[in-house]
Amino acid sequence: MIRTLTILLAFFLLSCAPLSETIQHAILPPEEEIRLGKSYIPSAIAENEGLYPDEEVQSYVRELGMKLASLAPRKLPYRFFVVNSSIQNAFALPGGPVFITRGLLLMLENESELVAVLGHELGHTNKRHHARYLEKVLGLSLLLRVTTALIGDGSLSSQLLVQAANIGASLLALKFSRDQEREADAFGVEIVSRAGYDPEGFIGVFEKFKEIQKERPPAWLSTHPLPEERIRNVSREVKKLKRPGMKVDSERFRRVKRKLLETKRSFELYEEGKDLYSRGEKSLALEKFRESLRLFERNQMAHVYIAVILSEMGRNEEALRHATRAVEIDPDLLWGRFVRGAVLFNMGKFEGSIEELEEARRLVPTFPDTYYYMGRSYEALGRYREALISYENAIRLAKGDEVWLQDARRRYEALRRI
Fold first, then answer.
1. Of the candidates 154, 138, 125, which has an alpha carbon nearest to the alpha carbon of residue 37?
2. Which of 44, 75, 168, 319 can pair with 311 through a Cys bridge, CB separation 3.0 to 4.6 Å?
C-alpha cells in the first residue's frame, strides 16, 4: 500500500542524523558550489509541494530575478522558482538557485517588495553564507564526493546517501546569524537601488512579517531573524539610497498577483483535504481534492493525493491516471514520480514501476520510500542483488517510524541468505 503523503511530506528531509563536525576547513570551489546547489533543486521543490504550475508567473519572477542577478558581483548560473507552498517563505541554495513561495507572493503588495525579497536572497548567495556553513562543518573531501555523486548518476553508497540527506536537510533549514542577515540586507538594498527600484520595499516586507508574527511565526522569520536593530539598519540604508522616480510597482506584478488570487481557493481546498486525510477521513478528503481540481485542474499535488487515496481503495487504474497527470504538469516533482511508481507496483507492473522510481531516485536520491518500492519490484522480478541494495538504502535512510521498515528489514535479511 502507498505510504500516506502526509507522512511523506513531514518526513522527507528530516530523516537523517545531525551533521558531524570536523576540524578541516577548506574553500569550496565555485564550480562545486554550483553543482551542489543544482543537485538539491528537486529536493527544495518537493519540500515545497512542487512548482507553481503557471509559466507566466514563473517567467515573471525569473526575469525579475535575473535583472537583479545581472548586477551581482558573483557571476553564477542564477535560477528563480515560484514554489507552491502556502507558507510565507523565500530561500536560496548555494551557487545560484532562489525560491519564493506562492504564500509569500500573495502577501506582497507591489513589485518593489518582491525585488526586496529576491535581492536579500541574492545577498546570501553572493556572500557565500551557505557555502561557508558547509565548509565549516564538513570536510571538503566528503563534500566533493557527495556533490559529484549527486550531480552524476545518483549511485551513492548507503553511507554517502545519509550524508547527502544531512546536507540537504541542513541547507533547507539553515538559520542565519545577525551578521549574515545584516550583510544580505545591505547587499539587497544596494542591488535593488542600482536596478532602479524603490528600496522602501524592504521596509514594507519587514512590516508585513512583523504583523504576521503577532498571530504566528512565519517560516521566513525562523531562518531570517528580524530584531528591531536590523530594521533600523535597513531604514538608514534606504534613506541614503532612495531617490525620486524609483520604480515601485508594475502592471505585470498586478496581473501575476491576480492569477495567484484566482487559484487561492483551489489550494485552500487542497490544504483542507490534506488535513482530512491526515485524520483518516479519506472519502471527505477525496471530495476536497476533487473540488480543488474543479477550480484549478493544474493543482498537481491534489492529483497526487487523489492517486494515493484511490490506490488505497484498490482503484489503481484511476489512481494511475491522476499520478500520470501530476507528472505531466510537473515532470520534476518527486511526489508525482514516486506515487506513479508505487501505483504501478500495486498493479503488478514491476518493470514500469522501476522505470518511474528510477526517475524519482534521480530527482531526490535521499528519499527512502523510493528504495523500498524499488526493492519490492526488483524482488518480484527475481533481481535479488538489486533488491538487496535497494532495501539496504531504504533501511539506512529510514527515520525509524516508516510503515514498511520492518518488512524491508525482513526481506533484506532473507535475501542476504540466498
1. 125
2. 319
- Alpha carbon separation from 202 to 78, 91, 108, 198, 237 (Å, rounded): 21, 16, 11, 9, 10
Residue span of the structural domain in which 131 resides: 17-249
Q: Is residue 2 part of a domain?
A: no
User: What is the layout of strands, in order, in the sheet containing 90-92?
Assistant: 79-83, 97-101, 90-92
- Rounded to 5 degrees, φ, ψ at 392 are -60, -45
Per residue in 201-233, pLDDT (tens digit) is: 999 998 888 887 666 655 555 555 665 778 888
Which are the contacts of 66, defined by CB distance < 8 A and separation ≥ 6? 78, 80
Claim to verify: residue 217 and residue 271 sit in the same structural domain = no
Cell of 103: 504564500
> Alpha carbon 355 to chain centroid distance?
23
| pTM, rounded to two decimals | 0.87
The answer on 284 and 152 residing in a single domain is: no
pLDDT greater than 80 at residue 147: no
Closest Cα partner for 286 from 313, 262, 320? 313
State how many domains the chain has: 2
266/240 same-domain check? no
Does some domain include residue 1?
no
Q: Which of 192, 211, 191 is nearest to 200 (CA)?
A: 192
Give CA–CA dist 176/167, Å, rounded: 16
Rg (CA), the chain: 22
Residues 185 and 235 in one domain: yes
Inter-CA distances, 399 with 13, 163, 215, 330, 335, Å: 10, 14, 32, 27, 18
- The reply to whether 219 and 100 lie within a common domain is yes
Residue 379 grid cell? 524482488
